Amino acid sequence: MPLNFEAALGIHPKTLTLRTQRAELLAHNIANADTPGYKAKDLDFAAILDSAGEGVKAVRMVTSHPSHQGGLFNEFGQADIKFRIPTSPSVDGNTVDSHREKAAYVQNALQFQASFRFLNGRFTGMIKALKGE
Questions:
Q1: Measured between alpha carbons, how far is 133 from 131 in angstroms, rounded to an integer?
Q2: Terminal Cα-to-Cα distance of the chain (whole angstroms)
Q3: Exposed, middle or buried: residue 4 (CB in 10 Å: 0-12, 13-18, 19+)?
Q4: 107 CB contacts (<8 Å, ≥6 apart)?
Q5: What pTM was computed for the model?
Q6: In Å, how far are 3, 27, 39, 50, 80 from 23, measured between CA atoms?
Q7: Which residue ranges in the chain fall short of pLDDT 50?
Q8: What is the pLDDT of residues 32-66, one digit of tens each?
Q9: Percent of the chain surpassing pLDDT 90
Q10: Coil, helix or strand at residue 82
C-alpha cells in the first residue's frame, strides 16, 4: 500500500510555510517601527487556512524599485495580507506597535515549534511503522 504523505501529515506542512511567511511580515513590521508612514501588516491566518485545500505555493512579491528586496508570499496573495488596525496611531502615520509586534512574533514562533514537533512525531511514527516496530 503506497504511503500518502498528505493524508498522514494533514495541514501541518502548510502551516509551517504560513508561519514562516508570517514571521517575515512581523519582522518587517518590527524593522520599520520608526519608518514614517509605514503600515503594519499581518496574514489573515484563519482565512488562509480555510482556503488552504488547494495547497500553498510561494510566489515572489512585487517590488516598485529594482533595489527593493522581494519577499516570498503565499499564492493567496495580497488578499490575505491585512493592514493592522492601530491601537494608537502615531503622528507620522506609522501604525507599528513594537510591543504588539514582538509579542505576535514570539507567539508565532511558539506555534511554529508546536507544528514542527507535531510533524516530527508523525515522521517518527511513520518510520517506526515502516520498520515494523
A1: 6
A2: 18
A3: exposed
A4: none
A5: 0.71
A6: 31, 6, 16, 20, 15
A7: 56, 74, 76-78
A8: 999 999 999 998 877 776 765 555 455 555 566 66
A9: 35
A10: strand
